[in-house]
Amino acid sequence: MAFEQRVKMSDVARTAGVSVATVSKVVNGRYGVAQATVERVQQVIHELGYEASLVAQSLRSHRTNVLGILVAEFEPFSTELLKGASRQVAGSGYQLLAYSSGDGDGAAVGWERRSLARLSGTLIDGAVIVTPTMIEPKQGFHVVAVDPHTGPSGLPTVDSDNFAGAVLATNYLLSLGHRRIGHISGRPDLESARLREAGFRRAMAEAGIPVDERLVRVGGFGVGKAAGTAAELLALPEPPTAIFAGNDLSAISTMEVARRFGRSVPDDLSVIGFDNVPESALVNPPLTTISQPLQRMGAEALRLLTDLIAGVERERHIRLPTELVIRSSCGPVIDADPADPRQRLSAT
Taking the C-alpha atoms of 290, 295, 301 and 307 in order, what is their torsion angle to the nearest 10 degrees? Predict the structure, then answer.
């Protein structure tokens, strides 16, 4: 299959019957061209589909009016952020370039450094980077991090209240009478995963219930590893009656494993996730989860980036609230002790 060659400025000039210099003036909004000629050139540009090279434009003006959103991969979390950023960029005078590093699940440390080296200065004027492992931005090049691995530092950052969300999730399971609660944690190098485990432990401690360390295992936020971890938990002589998974993909994977073990969700096992990606509402049963306002996070990150580029003074760390979304994957513990006051709470 043959592809059409890129329309060049000389093609526009030839079709419009003017010089390349005249077309350049029209494209770059410079004076010295009659209005009738400007209109004719603009009509030809529209008809031919001419677009100025971003590289050439940046060399001339040191601006491309393009912002980047950089991710390790396009999975549900980053896709929801992208939706919010895409809506926010409308009417801002900028265009948005979505770019994946191609490094899979983002385990390759430094993927964002390589991505910025390729794009900054010639293709984009600034970047939103999703879950970066490390950031060393160029001097004068603006970067906003979403949910960075190490948590907020000196870099402008947008995240959600992971600790409070984990407390909410655990307290909900406790209110249903569960005592043997498992936790499938995320990647240990991610601050958000550490905060979710810390919130789980805090809620258990405040309820006066010791954490059974055999029920706390690393799931890594990935479907495959989470499935193996869930299988380990359900194969225990005394398996958990409920599992708080570090993210929705891990929770969905846990529900699939439970079915293979012949366990009904929520009758035999309650499962709660974290993120509230669209897939969480589509599984059977629909997943109870902790909602991060993912699209709002993307929009806030994009707004923060444009403000930084414009020199607007503002708060450089935005932390958004999380909330419990109750669906159908959690239920009261079976064979609960009726003398336990928390069991009576779950039945009310």
Answer: -130
For 256-317, give the DSSP string: HHHHHTT--TTTT-EEEEEE--GGGGTSSSPPEEEEP-HHHHHHHHHHHHHHHHHT----SE
Long-range interactions of 305-312: CB distance < 8 A, separation 24+: 305/67, 305/126, 305/127, 305/128, 305/142, 305/143, 305/144, 305/156, 306/67, 306/92, 306/94, 306/126, 308/126, 308/142, 308/144, 308/156, 309/125, 309/126, 309/142
Question: Does residue 348 or residue 91 have the better pLDDT?
Answer: 91
Neighbours of 267 (CB within 10 A): 10
Which are the contacts of 254, defined by CB distance < 8 A and separation ≥ 6? 184, 226, 227, 230, 243, 245, 271
For the chain, give the number of residues: 348
Is the dihedral angle over the CA atoms 307, 320, 196, 69 positive or is it negative?
negative
**Short-list 317, 274, 308, CA closest to 152:** 317
Q: Residue for token digits 């019957």?
A: 17
Query: Average pLDDT for residues 59-87, to the nearest whole number?
Result: 85
Q: 10 Å Cβ neighbour count for 257?
A: 23
What pTM was estimated for this model as a whole? 0.79
Neighbours of 66 (CB within 10 A): 18
User: What rounded mean pLDDT belongs to the chain?
Assistant: 86
What is the rounded CA–CA span in Å between residue 10 and residue 290?
56
Q: CB within 8 A of 172, min separation 6: which ones?
A: 272, 288, 324, 326, 330
